[in-house]
Amino acid sequence: MNRHPIRTLWSLLAVVALVVAACGGGDGEGGGAGTTAGGDTGTTVAGGDTGTTVAGGDTGTTVAGGGTGTTVGGVAGEAPACEPGQTDGDLNLYNWSEYIDPELLSAFEEEAGVAVSETFYDSNETMLAQIQTGAVYDLIVPSDYMVEIMITDGLLLPLQKDAIPNIDNLAEEFQAPPYDPDLTYSVGYQWGTTGLGVDTEVVGTDFPASWGLVFDPAVTEPYAGQISLLNDARETLGAALKYLGYSINSESQEEVDAAAALISDNIDRITKFDSDLYTDDLVNGEVAVSHGYSGNFFTAFAATDNPERYAYVIPEEGATLWTDNMAIPSGAEHPCTAHAFINFLLDAERGAQLTNWNYYASPNEASAEFILPEVLEDPTIYPPPDVRDGLEIIHNTGDFEIAYTDAFAAAKS
């Protein structure tokens, strides 16, 4: 997929964003996607064994047992004190696919004198399961609500902020997130929204900026069977909840059941539930409307011969605003290298390079002057305040999470 930073502006996207801005109401500012950036768990790139991308080397997945800071059964070990820029071995990164410019990885390897191995996951839950079963990584990129879960479960090391002086570059709104108020365990990586990608040659240009694009039979009839929803309980049930006028974080069994029923009632019109190939399916013509993450749509549209054919919609009923974060698992074998990499990415110019490459908004305030104007000024990447008012962070609902999991499984069956 083409990740060239030169991006075409699409007038239709701006129009859609203005429509949303005029119509959106909401339940408060925030984000917290259940999944982002897509990608197949176990994708292999640039050599290495299955399940790993390696800059020359073996599989990046190992079983806990040995190494500084190693954990067994989620009990955190004590990491050594780290100095800014200090490394203690190669970096084993567990990340969403297509979420970082390879040139940034190469630059860190050259600067730090270490190798970077990258393994992909396709959902927060997949990543959590790997960490819980003892897989060892030095750095992970969990979404907001998952940070909270992993803190509670003792799966993250406290950050040594003295080793991350660039943490001061974070914008004020990312200095005290609700899931980790003191940034004790995490720092922001990128943020964005979850909405809908639309093929206007199939749907037309006069469509509602609404979740009705996937849930209203009167709207979807012309493209029934050409709809893709994320294979993610919190995101997809959250979309249905917002369409019904409820909070993404509802803890009402009645409301969650109503959202599940809405999905089930539309099951014959839904082609698939997918968190990996939703952008490819849209631009390849397999679906007409696709549920997914903002930056992935932008990069997919830009790689086509006719970007103006596609639009990204933040539905007027509201949607998810999520923040992905950098965190160090309690079983990390090279925590100092992880700290050095976090500080490296929080540099102003490197943070801008990341955003210019993947088209997700940056939590790094110091990066703003280096971000391409067409990215920084795009309201679908950096939504204006009236649109953000309709967005919600996905929160950890504790024991109620199983209600979401069960309801989603029932809705798809």
Q: Any overview of this molecule?
A:
With 413 residues, the protein is an alpha/beta fold. It contains 16 helices and 11 strands. The strands form 2 sheets. Strands 5, 6, 7, 8, 9, 10 and 11 form a 7-stranded mixed sheet that branches. Strands 1-3-2-4 form a 4-stranded mixed sheet. α2 links the parallel β2 and β3. The longest helix has 13 residues. It is globular. The N terminus is likely disordered.
User: What characteristic shape results from the CA principal axes?
Assistant: globular
**Arithmetic mean of pLDDT:** 85
SS-derived structural category? alpha/beta
Approximate helicity band: 25-40%
Cα distance, first to last residue?
A: 33 Å
Radius of gyration: 20 Å
Task: Tell me the number of helical segments per DSSP (H or I, 4 or more residues long).
Answer: 16
Beta strand count: 11
Q: How does the major sheet shape up?
A: 7 strands, mixed
Sequence stretches where pLDDT stays below 50 over 5 or more residues: 1-76
